[in-house]
Amino acid sequence: MGLTATTASCLAVDAGNSKTDVAVVNPDGSVRGRARGGGFQPPAVGVAAAVAALSRTVGEALSAAGTASVGHVSACLANADLPREEAELAEAVRARSWGRTAEVLNDTFAVLRAGLPDDGSVRHGVGVVCGAGVNCVGRAADGRTHRFPAVGQLSGDWGGGSGLAAEALWHAARAEDGRGERTELAHTVPRHFGLGSMRALIEALHLGDLPASRKHEVTPLLFASASAGDAVARALVERQAEEIVSMVTVSLSRLDLLRTPTPVVLGGSVVAARHPVLHGALTARLAERAPAAAPHVVTAPPVLGAALLGLDRAYAPPAAYARLRAGFA
């Protein structure tokens, strides 16, 4: 039997830098099909190639659901940072005809929605993603939003897992050769890779003996060193906390929410791990600078947020939201 279209269903997409999750959701909140694919990186491969790769994962989810298309596509995509990028990605998604309608947002909006209540009692909030990179968005109850360009160092960003790993390697290298402050990272980092010195690790990474993709393994070492009291490591982790708090307070200020009780939804692998040094510094500084803010960590997969946005659009009943959240618990 061939696949048919199911116009009442929603296709929820969370496409991050490292992985993609897709789910087909019924109006009653039940999940009909799911699929997982690789990272979504239009800046590296181009919009056409990135959406073509995404299409394979979408196809798997639609096939698992026994349908060829849906009523609405709720796509929350990494690298949809600037209005021009968002528009180009929306055009490419709509051209695929996965659904009759489609909405494309930055993936940070999925994290924000996943952390808000489903009864509509709170429509404002700030969402933070600190995973491979770092980003922050804010939404007021009247629909106004605040965003950062979030394209990396060029737009003033600092940190995230990749950025922290790079900083740890930089400080470890300088500690070993005498240019920088002493840190245990100079020993623990090369030891992790089975090497005797930072010089050997630098050579291995520079010449390709170790793939650059393994640099992400340095980030947990940084947090372990910070917890053990290493001053350099602790300073880096505390700077990450400061960067997050700065983004949040700017978003709250620009949306006139600084004195309004506001959920601050924290997501992404780095903050979701609740490392004591990072989480403690983050919550303490936020309480000092934005005492009305209410931070909480969301560990549910961001594709849940994309699906919830789809249910919002369909004015789904309360039972649908409860069923959907239970399906991703």
Characterization of this structure:
The chain is α/β, with parallel strands linked by helices. It is built from 13 helices and ten strands. The strands form two sheets. The chain has a five-stranded mixed sheet with strand order 3-2-1-4-5. Strands 8-7-6-9-10 form a five-stranded mixed sheet, sandwiched between helices. Helix 12 runs antiparallel to helix 13. The longest helix has 24 residues, at 231-254. The two termini are 33 Å apart.
Task: Write out key terms for the chains shown.
alpha/beta; 329 residues; single chain; 10 strands; globular
**Beta-strand percentage?**
15-25%
In spatial order, strands of the major sheet run 3-2-1-4-5
Mean pLDDT reading = 95
Shape: globular
- Nearest-angstrom radius of gyration? 21 Å
Largest sheet: 5 strands, mixed
Runs in which pLDDT lies below 50 for 5 or more consecutive residues are none
Approximately how much helix is present in the residues?
A: 40-55%
Helix and strand run: EEEHHEHEHEEEHHHHHEHHEHH
Structural class, by secondary structure, is: alpha/beta
Write the SSE topology:
Elements lengths: L3 E12 L3 E7 L5 E8 L3 H4 L1 H19 L1 E11 L5 H13 L3 E8 L1 H7 L10 E6 L3 E6 L5 E3 L12 H18 L7 H8 L5 H9 L11 H10 L3 H24 L7 E6 L1 H4 L3 H14 L3 E5 L4 H12 L4 H10 L2
Parallel strand pairs: 1-4, 4-5, 6-9, 9-10
Antiparallel strand pairs: 1-2, 2-3, 6-7, 7-8
Question: What is the structure about, briefly put?
Answer:
The strands form two sheets. The protein has a five-stranded mixed sheet. The chain has a five-stranded mixed sheet with strand order 8-7-6-9-10, sandwiched between helices.
